[in-house]
From TrEMBL, chains A, B:
This is Helix-turn-helix domain-containing protein. PANTHER family: TRANSCRIPTIONAL REGULATOR, MARR FAMILY. It comes from the Bacteria. The keyword DNA-binding applies. It holds the Pfam family HxlR. Residues 13-117 form the HTH hxlR-type domain. The keyword Transcription applies. SUPFAM superfamilies: Winged helix' DNA-binding domain (SSF46785). Keywords: DNA-binding, Transcription, Transcription regulation. It comes from Snuella lapsa. InterPro entries: HTH_HxlR, WH-like_DNA-bd_sf, WH_DNA-bd_sf.
Length: 119, 119
DNA sequence: GAAACTAGTTTCCTTTTAGAAACTATTAAA
DNA sequence: TTTAATAGTTTCTAAAAGGAAACTAGTTTC
């Protein structure tokens, strides 16, 4: 779930391939960018708040993705001593640095769709 | 293999989710960014040149990914009337616009690794 | 005529990813 | 006392992704 080791060393640009792999493994999948985007917009949110905001996500998936994001220090998880207990998730400062990358992903996607549709 | 339709309409920001999905579906997977990056560096390349540059890719995977990139107008495929026939793959102008996005993916990946390693 | 190069395709198999449904356990409200 | 909310976990299943090996088919070199 953390950073992976390289298995073969072929080119002198291994560090670039490694950086691509690190980033893409964190952002790939159906829900991870949506989770980060939701926390960017909504700030601190509880588990069920996230679940409701992310229309259709299964609790298992949300739980697993949140754990992976926490291991990678993009979010923090804080258990509140309320009754019933609540758990608050927030982006770290490091997690917030994904803001501009996600914005560029959105922008390229828009440009791309225009390119494909208008032929 | 082309652009997907939305199935549900939940928020007013559907176009953003759609743009993220479009971009990530094109870039996700083990080889696609590597193929694009190889063509960015190497310019026009033949099938076997690409296969050799992309250490370890199976011909089936390379063939499938190239078709998907072609459908999305990121690359062109040109059959040359040589003997034996050769096939040349190049990035389109649209494909080349991924350059800066990939650069940012690499940069974020480097920053991230430092963040994780140095605690 | 056999081997090798071109660019793939086909088949089979394993791994990864995701979803649905049911369940745990604590607490509070009606 | 039943219902509902909190935050998950467990189990089972389906679909997607990826890899290995063999094969096609035309041409060229040895």
């Amino acid at each position: 779930m953390g950073l992976q080791q390289e298995t073969s060393l072929s080119s002198e640009c291994i560090w670039q391939l490694r950086a691509i792999k690190d980033t893409m493994e964190l952002l790939s999948g159906k829900w991870k960018i949506q989770i980060i985007g939701t926390l960017l917009r909504g700030g601190t949110m509880r588990f069920m708040e996230l679940k409701r905001a992310l229309n259709g996500i299964a609790p298992k998936k949300l739980s697993n993705d949140l754990q992976e994001l926490e291991v990678n220090k993009l979010i923090t998880r804080e258990v509140k001593d309320t009754k019933p207990i609540t758990v608050e998730y927030s982006l770290t400062e490091h997690g917030k640095t994904l803001d501009s990358l996600i914005a560029e992903i959105i922008e390229w996607g828009c440009t791309h769709r225009k390119e494909i549709i208008t032929g």
